[in-house]
Specification:
The protein is an alpha/beta fold. The chain contains twelve helices and twelve strands. The chain binds D-malate.
Length: 304
């Protein structure tokens, strides 16, 4: 019997792929062969000596002590691309929220409860406070052309935006094979100087921590709108606050609220919902479970 420990709720359509005559699955289980998790932070956890694999039902692995696992011969899997469509749709929603104050408008509309026959007239009077702008014709800069960045680029292009892209780890030649909707630029300065909207879609690593900082904000146009559905740590929050106060950044939409950003004006905070769709959760769970099975039963390693 293989023992699987789940450290978060994992979509049942994935978990049911483990044949129960060969696998025991529980959130607490002694001597697990593998751990399957989502966002549980494993850094302070003692790694059981029985452990052979850790599978993240998601893309980022910054909640897993990858180096420590590797030293102990534990294989770490993730599920790149499996939730990319969910995150793409969230980025597009974030961009639309940054271009019009839908949230303010919805809250304002609620204040009209009780106005009876006056609602129509009050709507006509108040709606001008919520005039926004369209995204068609605006320039979206995509930083990072992985699975999510490419999908965002293609969707934005379908919305008739001009899409420009840059990936610090990819040549233009290779990137062209990923999406023809994007005009590739060679450097971050060229990219940021043209953008009305910026979306950052790179993993959080020691190299990318605080990537959007004072220097990068200085390269941007005044009034730029920034979308971060990748990781909060990619943005230097002290520098962001200054950039917002100086009018450089008109809006920052983040899927990673924290104490700093929640207090800032012009920030739209979403509680890490990018991949929280039934479809994404199922896709990630299936990919994670299949990888664990293939490794435990056959020794095969994919996406580690
Ligand atoms: C990811 O790393 O795949 C995303 O942050 C989504 C998530 O795990 O909730």
């Amino acid at each position: 019997m293989f023992k699987i420990q789940t450290l978060n709720k994992i979509d049942p359509d994935g978990l049911k792929l483990f044949p129960l005559d060969q696998y025991e699955i529980a959130s607490e289980i002694p001597n697990p062969d593998a751990i399957v998790l989502r966002s549980f932070k494993m850094h302070d956890m003692e790694l059981p000596s029985s452990l052979k694999a850790v599978a993240r039902a998601g893309a980022g692995v910054n909640n897993i002590p990858v180096d420590k696992c590797t030293e102990k011969g534990i294989v770490v899997f993730n599920t790149p691309g499996a939730n990319a469509n969910g995150v793409k749709e969230a980025v597009i929603a974030g961009m639309l929220m940054a271009s019009r104050d839908y949230i303010g408008a919805v809250n304002w509309a609620k204040t009209l409860i009780g106005e009876g026959d006056n609602v129509g007239a009050l709507v006509e009077k108040g709606k001008n406070n919520f005039a926004g702008e369209e995204i068609k014709g605006k320039t979206l800069a995509v930083i990072g052309l992985g699975a999510i960045g490419v999908l965002v680029a293609n969707a934005a292009s379908a919305l008739r935006m001009k899409v420009i892209g840059y990936d610090p780890y990819m040549s233009v030649k290779h990137a062209l094979k990923l999406s023809r909707e994007v005009t590739w630029v060679e450097g971050i300065q060229v990219l940021l100087s043209q953008a009305d909207f910026v979306t950052i879609n790179v993993p959080l690593t020691p190299e990318t921590k605080g990537y959007l900082n004072k220097d990068k904000f200085a390269m941007m146009k005044d009034g730029v709108k920034i979308l971060n559905f990748a990781r909060g740590g990619l943005v230097n929050h002290a520098d962001l606050k200054e950039a917002i106060e100086a009018g450089k950044v008109a809006s920052y939409v983040t899927d990673f609220p924290d104490e700093d950003t929640l207090k800032m004006d012009k920030v739209i905070s979403i509680p890490h919902l990018g991949a929280s769709t039934k479809e994404s959760e199922t896709n990630c769970a299936i990919m994670a479970v299949e990888q664990v099975q293939d490794y435990l039963e056959n020794g095969n390693i994919k996406n580690s």
